[in-house]
Design brief:
CATH superfamily of the largest domain: Phosphorylase Kinase, domain 1
Helix content: 25-40%
Structural class: alpha+beta
CATH architecture of the largest domain: 2-Layer Sandwich
Order of helices and strands: HHEEEHEEHEEEEHH
Distance between the termini: 43 Å
CATH class of the largest domain: Alpha Beta
Largest sheet: 5 strands, antiparallel
CATH topology of the largest domain: Phosphorylase Kinase, domain 1
Strand order of the largest sheet: 1-2-3-5-4
Radius of gyration: 19 Å
Shape: globular
Number of domains: 2
Number of helices: 6
Strand content: 15-25%
Number of strands: 9
């Protein structure tokens, strides 16, 4: 089994014995799983749903937590008709590792708490009534004051050696004028060996260029001009130490 280390013994047994239901678990089943494995003491409600995973609001004792659960079947990452459990375990492990690495280096990402199988808990941003809004949904806020904070937050993430490959107003939350970058599973680490360093830096440069265009377009539509080439040059300086980078 290629990714067995990402799953516990009970999950590996279910895969090998065929004891896996070919449907997405219902809400109550997900809630029971999260409390059983200790990611939350109580699951309050579903607060978000993306292409690959759902996010739940829960309690961990007296604290509110967000719990991200990767789906097995209703996902864009498919192997045949379904997603293999060991593969989604790998996705959850990869995102949790990146989250911990970026947070430990001071990047503005939610604080990771713990991971079990294909789910992990992390810092919840917002209040009991509603989660912090995505950047694209914020209203009644000083965009001119927020823009440099967003740009600086991306820069801080890049300084940690982590580059978001899907940076957009959809993947940034704003909590009391503080931007937080989410969905770090769509990031790459330019400091990690594996692919040739020049290739990783090239991929990072393309991702940063796309992110600069997205943010410049967003803030420009709200009366705050940003130059994407200047953003790229600024962010690019932070990854030069990982290899050659040409911000053209």
């Amino acid at each position: 089994m290629p990714n067995a280390p990402y799953l516990d013994a009970s999950v590996r047994w279910r895969i090998q014995s065929g004891q896996v239901a070919l449907r997405e678990p219902r809400y109550r089943e997900v809630a029971a799983f999260l409390t059983e494995v200790g990611l939350a003491t109580e699951v309050l409600r579903l607060i978000g749903s993306g292409k690959e995973a759902d996010v739940y609001l829960g309690r961990d004792g007296s604290s509110l937590v967000a719990v991200k659960v990767y789906r097995t079947y209703r996902t864009v990452n498919q192997v045949g008709r379904t997603m293999k459990l060991d593969a989604i375990g790998h996705l959850a492990s990869w995102e949790f590792e990146l989250l911990h690495y970026a947070w430990s280096d001071g990047a503005p990402v939610p604080r990771p708490i713990r991971r079990e199988e294909h789910a992990f808990s992390m810092q919840y941003l917002g209040n009991l009534d509603r989660p912090a809004p995505r950047l694209k949904d914020v209203v009644d806020i000083d965009m001119a004051a927020l823009a440099p904070r967003v740009v600086g937050g991306v820069e801080r993430l890049v300084e940690a050696g982590v580059v978001h490959t899907d940076l957009s107003p959809y993947n940034i939350l704003v909590d009391r004028m503080t931007p937080w970058i989410i969905d770090v599973g769509k990031c790459l680490r330019v400091d990690r060996l594996g692919a040739p360093p020049w290739l990783k830096v090239h991929q990072a440069g393309e991702a940063l260029a796309a992110g600069a265009r997205h943010l410049a377009r967003f803030f420009g539509s709200r009366g705050v001009p940003l130059d994407p080439s200047e953003l790229l040059a600024r962010w690019g300086q932070r990854i030069e130490r990982f290899g050659g980078f040409d911000p053209r």
